[in-house]
Amino acid sequence: MTALLQMADRAAGAEIARPQAPVRAAAARFVPRGRLAWLLAAPALLLLVAPVDGGVTAAALAIDASLLLAAFVDAAIAARARIEATRAVPPHLSVGVPNRISLRLLNRGPRTVRIEVLDQPPPSFEGSAHLHSVRIPPFSSMRVEERLVPTARGRYRFGDLCLRVRGPLGLAVAERRLPLCEEVKVYPDLRAVRRLALAGGARTRSELGIHELRREGEGSEFETLREYGPGDAYRDIDWKATARRGEPVVRTQQPERSQIVLIGVDTGRLMAAQSGRLSKLDHAINAALLLAFVALRSGDRVGLVTFSDEVHRYLPPRRGRTQYRRILDALYQIEAARTYVDYRAYARSILALQRRRALVLTFTDLFDETASGELVLQMGRMARRHLPVVITLRDPALDRMVADAEDPWRMAVAAELLDERESLRRGLKLAGARVLDPLPDESVVAAVNTYVELKRRQAL
User: Which among 302, 270, 263, 268 is positioned nearest to 286, based on CA atoms?
Assistant: First the structure.
C-alpha cells in the first residue's frame, strides 16, 4: 500500500520538479540598445543647429565612431559573461491548472550581470512566458518562476531559452540562445490523488468532499499502520504501536470483500464540449483516475474501457500500483472523437470480457432519445449480471439558459432539453442502473462518493 501511495504521488507530479543538466550559453549576437541610437543621433542634431563647419562635422563623426566602438566593447564584455541555466519542470504537468516552471540562472563570472531572460513554452499553454530582467551577483545564482496552464493533455515541447546579457555601459546586449529543448507530458489533473496519497486522513477526505469508506462495525481486515493525522478518529489509535514508536499511530482497515470495479469512459463527440477550461472528457478522466486510486487503495480490482463508435481499449481488472500506472497511461492522451457512441458494442464487450459480477461506472452524456434510448436498453442488459452506474455530465449552459428570463425562447428550449434528460434518467433507473447527473466539475466527488456508498453497503 505504501508503494501505491508513493507511485500516485510521483504520477501526480509532486512539488519535486525535474531539473535539466546545466547548459552554457552558445555564441552571442550583438544587439544595440535604444540608448545607443539616441546617443548617436545627438551629434547629428548638433550639426543641424551649428554652422556648417568641417571641424564640427569631424567632431560629430568622431563622437559617433567612439560611441560605436564603446558599444562593441560593451557587447564584447557582455558576451564574455559565463552564464549557465537549467529549467525545472514537474515530472507530469496537469491540464487546466497552473503548473510551476522554474528557471535557474548561474553566473560563474567575477562581474555582476544584468540579464533579460525569455523562455519558450508550448504555444498552446496559457500564461505564456514573460520577459524577466534579473541582476545576478558574481558567482551567484538566481531563480525565475512562472505558472503555466496547459489547455490539453498530451506531449509538448519547450523551446530554447533566450538570454540578453546587458553590457556594463548599457549601450548593447549580447543575445544568446541556450539549447534547453525538452519534451513534457501533460496529464489529467491529479492534485486530488496526490493529496490523498500524501495525507489520506479524514480531514483531507472532508476537504475534498469525499466520504469515508469505513464506518464503525464495517471492515475488520487490518491494512497498515501510519502516523496519526488531524481528523483521524481517536478509536483508530493503535496504543501498542504508539508506545513502541513514541508517537501516535493509527491502524487503517478495509472492508473484507474485494470487488471488481470497471470504469467506462465515453470518448464520443459529446464529450468534447467545453466546461470552463476543460472538456467534459477531461472532467471524466479526472474523476476516473481518482476513482481508480480510491478503489485500488481499498484493495479492489480495477479495470478500464474507453469507447465511442467502438471499444478502443480494455484493461482487465487488476490490483496493485502498476494497474494505476496502466490506467493513467491509457487515459492521458485520449481525445474525443467526432463520432457517435455505440452503446451496444460497449455493453457487448463488457458482458463478453467480464463474466464475474462487477461494479461498472460509465462516464457519458445524454443528447437525444434515439442515441440515449440505446444506452437505456444496454444498461438493462448489463444489469442482469453487473451493477451499472451511469454518470452523465450535465451541461452548465442549460442551467443558465433556464434561468435566462430575458429570452423566453431559450428558456423554453433549455427546459425541454432538461425534461428529456430527466426522462432518460428515469428510464435508466427503471432498467436497473444507478444514475448521477452532476455538473462536470462536480463529477469527481459524485463518482467517488457513489463508489464509497455502494462499497459500504456491500451492494455487490
Answer: 263
